[in-house]
Amino acid sequence: MRLGSDDSLYWKTGIPRCACRLSSDVAVGVRAEVPTKKHALIAWLSGSVSKVAGLYIDNFVDGMRGLGYIDGQDFDMVSRFAEGFADRLPALAEEIVGLRPDVIVAGAVNAAVPAHTATSVIPIVCPALADAVHLGLIASEARPGGNVTGIEPYVAGLPAKQLEFAREIVPGAIRIGLLTNLQDQKARPQRQELVSAAKALELTIVEADANNPNEIKGAVEALTNSPVDVVIVLQTGLLLTLGRQIAELATAKRLPTVYGYREHVVAGGLISYGVDLRWCYRRGAYFVDKILHGTPPGTYRWNSLPR
Which regions of 103-259 does DSSP assign to beta strands (E)? Predict the structure, then answer.
């Protein structure tokens, strides 16, 4: 187990190696047959702040380059960011639809929902989907239909493993804090799994919910004052966006904290165990390429991460 803020010290996830590299059909250096249409327009919609979302846009563009596309020559991009305030997303989605892009890339499911509400025609690719069937984004995983496709980065069993690590870094921990963001659909299955795992171990769960940037400080302080022995930060777009602030608050409060994304460790967090989002956003280029070649998003199987 490796701890620390240095990216080189990040402890890799237990997901098979195939989940952390591009598959052979998006290998770097293989020139795809790029559509003849000049300057396809790709619109990026994100609930995150632009600085954080920009990292994943870079991953996506790298994936496009690996497929033989040249940004500025084969495609152009426009972006809209909600800066952590999810209530801004519907208006931004309407604005993006008005630009008539060839494809909308929704940075996460909280952006995919308003994008889908704004259009049932323009294809939508989401590299970080969650609960897509229940939300009405797809009909089923095997037969999605509609205009939305993408990847679900949630892997059952990871939250329980994070709880295990939390008890390793704080031996004897009984009161487990959860920093949640329950307006994000990705948070719900994580919370449910953690609560169930804690109940089986006869542990006490203390929750603090934050759904916009203004609520983060109060949520961390609530966990500190409760008090808790260790905190698990759920994997959501907002909590990822505010990772540096969360890490600084946790350090100041001397609060051991476990995260689900490597980026939290890069931002100063203690330990992370989870999926590699960089892979998800590079893989998003594969879906965009298929769409630009004329494949409707609802005709091929919706994807989850390799187990």
Answer: 103-106, 124-126, 148-152, 175-180, 204-209, 230-233, 257-259
